[in-house]
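Quick start: read one record
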Amino acid sequence: MPTLIAGKKTIECKLVVFDKDGTLIDYREVDFELARARRKTIEQLVGKEAADLWERAVGVNLKENRMDFHGPLGTLPERDELLVATTALYLKGYQLEEARRLAQKAYSLADEAMKSPYGSVLLEGVTRTLQKLKKHGFKLAIASTYAHKRTVESLDTLGIASLFDAVVGPEDVVNGKPSPDMIFELLEETNCRADETVMVGDSMSDMKMGKNANVKACIGVLTGFTQRQDLEKLADLVIDSVAQLDVI
């Protein structure tokens, strides 16, 4: 079994599961690209006032280039964020079913308008680290709240899709993070066990997911929005970035 080096700790494991945004990808660029696309289609469908209300509901201010990365747009899978968007349109005066229909249409149009890699920018050292892990026999996988299809397309555009043995998105499981469902699905697809798996992520939900799945170790990285003192409450160890991972 290959051995992973993280900080001063060595971990024998077969599978390394990565979160995507904030762990491998600069999450800020992805979220702002998504927000701009959704704001544009909502305004086209229902007007500026409704689009302004949507911004407040999901926690973004595009005029000032600000976002609450702990808010709905920054943390929720699309199916849950759609409920927030529906509520915003309902509060604007639309009947519930019409609000739901308009929110779904706006999000679908925004998805169609976006092009791969959907704002994704690899964090420094990610490609080199992934290539090294793959060369030494690790299986690599992704568990992301970002849609499966867009995740695969963005990874392909960025030139790293071939390094991953499996990808799971929110539509692939019944329950998203911090439920262990994503990891369980990845274990099945890669024919690995939880006790030979390591979870690497930037958020508390990543760490909780790993713990709920009883993986061998949870490694927190500081390239997302979660502070070290918070990650340390759940993570087995915290490192600055994925670039600090190594192998023996």
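The mean pLDDT is 95.
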